[in-house]
Specification:
The protein has 20 helices and ten strands. It is of the alpha/beta class and 588 residues long. β9 and β10 form a beta hairpin.
Amino acid sequence: MEKLFKHVKDVILENKFKYILGILLLIVVDGLQMITPLVIGAFTDSLTSGMLTTQGIYKYMLYILVIAIGVALGRFGWRMSIITVAKKLEYELRNKVFKHLEKMSRNYYNHHRTGDLMAHCTNDISQIRMAFGGGTVMIIDSLFMIIVTLLLMIFKINFKLTIIALLPLPIITIFVLFMTKLMRKRFKEVQEAFSALSEIVQESFSGIRVIKSFVQEKLELEKFNKINQNDFDKNMNLVKIKAFAFPLVTLVTMISMVISLIYGGILVIDGVITIGKLVAFLGFVGMLTWPMMALGFVFHRLQQGRVSLERINVILNTKPEIIDSSLLSDIDDANDILLEIKNLNFKYPNTNELVLKNINMKIKTGENIAIIGKTGSGKTTLLNLLLRFYNIDSEKIYFNGKDIVNLSIGNIREKIGYVPQDNFLFSKTIEQNLMFSDEKIPFDKIVEAAKISKINSEIDSFELGYKTMLGEKGVNMSGGQKQRVSIARALVKSPDLIILDDSLSAVDTKTEEVILSHLENELKDKTSIVISHRISTIKNSDYIYVLDNGKIIEEGNHNELLENRKLYFDLYQKQLLEEKIMGGQSGK
């Protein structure tokens, strides 16, 4: 049980006094409600006996009014206490889950669907909040009201009448308790169906342009309908249990009422109890209906919360794969050798095949290094290791002479300006995207970076300029524009090392040359690593590494590699031929 509440107990303990106050106020409200039938019963007896006076009417009215005001104030109090704590729990738990997910490695997201994680952060956490809020109210409310009502019925009215009249009511609780296990199973199915529905909606809207371009709207709609139908069916399976339970509760309650009227009427005729006591008794029977039903359904609510809490615990109990070492070192100022890789081998988690084999590199501060190779040769994987997206062995990669394993992950990434292949942009303004690394960056610095990456004039052409709001993933920009915004975003950081991972593939050769010329001036005092499939992009680099099947098979500058007449030479000749063909076609 302690493990179940491991991630919520801190919030509960922090707010325990407010929670206890809410429970006490709830009990007070229930106690006041218990008095009402007794007051009505006494009023009825006074009326039937002819003892009721005008002053007595005012007295009973005052009693009921005071009770009503007390109930209203008490309800406000317990709601502001219990529900506030439940909302606070929801807030803190959602923050905790989001913070934890930010720590997870890229490999974690390769194996967990976005829609499923969204369902955890929304639906599951809401169910936990309802269990600690409404669930607590229901269980305290039902138990207190059942116990106190039974005591009042037995000692204030008639023991025998109470036992006979209430014999059917426990059927309600027994039935609901019997259905709890089935409800738990069906609720879990509902949560899983909701996760699947969230996933397909998120994926379809993100890929709507691809769906439309391939004219697959009908097929995607059929897929959505199938998953939506499954979600509907799972919810209906849960609803059917509730739909059967409520009429049963009403039937059992009516049977208790009929028994009360028949046997209670006999007791009134025999003079055992008064009419007022019978009226009060019927009021108590009606008041017992909700607690008896709630006592059963509260377990369903708690089961829902338990299932959701277990799902959230799975996330929070999953330890991040990439964490800081216990022996952290500070990153020193740049020295002669900024980056050094020694005999690096790497294979992805849960695989046996090496994707990088015996990689050795030495990159001096201020050097412009290029890496080229065929698709799948391991270029991007190598960059991912530099950014600590995956775990590596110690003494394999050194940054400023320090083992990268012993450096803070945050510090390493702060020192690197990374422009990935996918060029993800956020649904914010262009300005906010460019200042993503630091919201206090001066606007002039943003504009300067945009000029270097040759995107400034195009941003100015928008009606709102840098205040232009981008759609999801920058959907209202072209591929080339997104690449240049991403380059500008990396330059704004003023990093020690800038990495361009095939970041000019979506721009034409002429624009590429202009950007590269600007970058050469900007990066003359910085270290850079450029990955590209175009030799024209990297031919002026200080040093070039050629990767093939995870190995460095050639290294040197452009002229030296051409003289080797190996893979680099073959790629160069092939690209020259492609340029001639394209040039010939454009001249026709």
